[in-house]
Write the structure tokens for this entry.
Amino acid sequence: MRARPLATAVVLALTTALLAAAAPGRPAPTALTPSGDRATATAATRLAGNTEVPVKGGSARFDAPPKTLAALKARGVAIAEIDTQGQISPHYSTGSIDLGIKSGTVTNSGGKVGGELRFTRAGIALINIRTKKVVKVTGFVGDLSQGTLDAVLNRGAKTTLGTFTRPRTTSSIDTEAAVLRMDTDLTVTAAAAARLNAALGTPFFTAGGPLLRIRIDAALDPSVDLETALNLGHHVP
């Protein structure tokens, strides 16, 4: 005769538990996500092209256009290299300056190269031979997402030196060599032109005028799957 009261107690316990679970204010049980779904979500995030790929080094070559170089020379302005210790070379440059890339990141920003490149402490000196005025241009940082090159003039505030056209990611990334390659022209900004002219004592630079031809070879982290991280298989119209 004890079996019937025991069965009744079990039914009452189950009913109470079901009513408590359905009570308002209680959160619904969390569904377990299969591992396959998590993998799919992770892959989708990577395919968005927002992954920052570390830059491990590299080099850049800054070339003054022949016409710019000739015009500077006509005004008595020479170009010289600045080493990582801040010392100006006693020898004038032919217009080509090599700088190292120390760090940074690269992203796929709307189908074009994004991220940032930070250069070594070396730089470029513009020397007005007639007036003995010198402008040291150092602390280069390339904002790849904005298409700008920032620098410090004579240890002052950082200035946006110039702007450039951002290249497409698919044509700039060598996935086999894990290298970002860029070849672009830099045009001087109005603010930089004014500061350079004032420091050199000669009205040479004009806003939007050609400043440098920049060639970049930035070494990317070889452990990263670049095609996935930068979404190189997806073409943005």
User: Anything to note?
Assistant: Confidence is low (pLDDT under 50) at residues 1-48. Residues 57 and 102 are 5 Å apart (CA to CA). DSSP finds six helices and twelve strands in the chain. The first strand starts at residue 53 and ends at 63.
